[in-house]
Design brief:
- The complex is a heterodimer of chains A (about 300) and B (about 140).
- Chain A is an all-alpha fold.
- Helices cover about 70% and strands about 0% of the residues of chain A.
- In chain A, helix 2 (about 15-35) crosses helix 10 (about 255-275).
- The longest helix of chain A is centred in the middle third of the chain and has 31 residues, at about 125-155.
- Chain A is globular, with a radius of gyration of 19 Å.
- Chain B is α/β, with parallel strands linked by helices.
- Chain B starts with a helix and ends with a helix.
- In chain B, strands 2-1-3-4-5 form a five-stranded parallel sheet, sandwiched between helices.
- Chain B has one domain: Rossmann fold (3-Layer(aba) Sandwich), CATH 3.40.50.
- Chain B is globular.
- The longest helix of chain B is centred in the C-terminal third of the chain and has 16 residues, at about 125-140.
- The chains are: A mainly alpha (about 300), B alpha/beta (about 140).
- The interface between A and B is medium-sized, with 29 and 21 residues.
């Protein structure tokens, strides 16, 4: 039992699997973005080289601010992402629960944003603090539509927060996204996920033309490697979460495996296309977009789900 | 260290240090990122923060006013870090060599690893310099 938990956490749906797949997804992201700009793009194992290179560089601590928080934030973020990946992966691939349901996962994903804020605010750099402040605003903006959208599969599968129950409902009654409320919720969730990953058009915290690198400006070497790894792991956790909630799971047997891989690639490429075709929005525009348009849409989806449409 | 150096050679992140340039070399550096030259296929990225940098591209003749700042940027970069002097200015001082505000001993301000000649150097020349740096790293 303990051995299985450790294997789940460290190897298969957990750290090793998610990190390797995330690094490959990060390469796909850069390659597709490069093709969008008529460039060639980096070679396949570029992200591995980047992370290994960063791990071998010098660690520089800041003179001002809180050094312990500066070091702790990326490591805690890595732990949070690993637990999130394990809880989504075990439900999605192995049909077991890792002791976490949707509420725990929401808490973990929100806690990651809080860690970005803490890590960004710790060095006392002006750009870094501004980035941290913007991360707070972005979290405020995307959290409400994201939670409302994730409520729809919960309501439709009989008010069950357990991942297994949501997957079992979809196995019996078809994908959530095939219903009206599910489709609406999926669109909202996809855009909220884009903001949760801080990808364009919602890369407000680390806007490279305004804030250089936002919360990560003072990070270098191994600590930056952990932030990069967290961002790559998010490219795995969030699409898998969307597949779990809306697209009917990812069975590891027979044709299901092929469908699962296709679903993942489709979602990833969809995210990359949204990333490449939209310029950055302002903070107030992002908040207005999420609260004025997506939140009522998600609320409508919740009402439709309660009515059973 | 050979394995690590090969990883480093495939992932050089470049930070652009403008040490009182005339802006001509800076425009040529930006050319490297355009679809025509696309240095991202070698794993090279232009980063905005010096904490992320592996290579400092120094353009311009380093004058007395920016010399302390250039030194500080070099010290802020996590080691190992390499310094490439782009253009005739960091190499020899160009036509500003006898100016009152030009630092005469540039190598004491920041230790250069590679120089790229030209006023401004062609993007091909800069790629050649980076490839030479990679060759040294690959052994």
């Amino acid at each position: 039992m303990t051995a299985q938990i450790l294997f789940d956490f460290f190897v298969f749906p957990g750290i090793v699997f998610t990190a390797v797949l995330g690094l490959l997804a990060g390469w796909l992201d850069r390659k597709v973005s490069a093709r969008f700009q008529f460039r060639v793009g980096p070679p396949p194992f570029q992200s591995f080289n980047d992370v290994f290179k960063l791990l071998g560089k010098e660690t520089i601590l800041v003179k001002t601010g809180l050094p312990w928080l500066f070091v702790a934030a990326p490591l805690a973020g890595f732990a949070v992402m690993s637990v999130a990946a394990t809880s989504v992966g075990t439900a999605l691939f192995l049909g077991r629960t890792a002791g976490a349901d949707l509420i725990v996962l929401m808490y973990l994903l929100m806690f990651y944003s809080v860690l970005v804020v803490l890590g960004g605010a710790s060095p006392g750099n002006v750009f870094s603090s501004l980035g941290a402040g913007r991360e707070v605003k972005l979290l405020l903006a995307d959290e409400l539509p994201f939670i409302l959208a994730c409520l729809v599969p919960v309501i439709r599968s009989g008010y069950k927060l357990d991942f297994g129950a949501i997957l079992a409902y979809q196995a019996a009654h078809g994908m959530q996204v095939a219903s009206v409320s599910g489709a609406l919720a999926f669109i909202v969730a996809l855009l909220a996920v884009q903001a949760k990953m801080a990808l364009p058009p919602f890369h407000i915290p680390d806007a490279e033309t305004e804030l250089v690198a936002g919360p990560f400006i003072e990070y270098g070497g191994p600590l930056l490697a952990f932030w990069k790894l967290n961002q790559f792991m998010m490219l795995v956790v969030f699409p898998f979460l969307l597949i779990l909630l809306f697209w009917g799971g990812f069975p590891l047997r027979g044709l299901g495996l092929l469908w699962g891989v296709l679903k993942y690639l489709l979602l990833l490429v969809l995210i990359i296309i949204i990333k490449n075709t939209n310029p950055r929005v302002r903070t107030d525009t992002a908040i207005a977009f999420f609260w004025k348009y997506l939140a009522p849409l998600a609320l409508a989806a919740v009402v439709l789900a309660v009515l059973g449409v | 260290m050979g394995w690590y150096n090969r990883r480093l050679a495939k992932s050089l992140w470049v930070f652009h240090v403008s040490a009182s340039p005339c802006n001509n070399c800076d425009i040529e550096i930006l050319d490297l990122l355009t679809p025509r030259y696309d240095v991202e296929r070698f794993g090279i990225r232009l980063v905005g923060s010096v904490r992320h940098a592996d290579v400092l591209l120094v353009t311009g003749v380093i004058n007395e006013k920016v010399a302390p700042l250039v030194r500080r940027l070099y010290e802020q970069a996590p080691k190992p870090v390499f310094v490439v002097g782009v253009g005739t200015c960091p190499t020899s001082g160009c036509c500003f060599k006898e100016s009152y505000n030009t630092v005469q001993r540039r190598a004491d301000v920041i230790p250069f690893n590679v120089y790229v000649e030209g006023c401004p150097p062609k993007p091909e020349a800069m790629i050649d310099a980076i490839v030479k740096l990679m060759g040294v790293l690959n052994g």
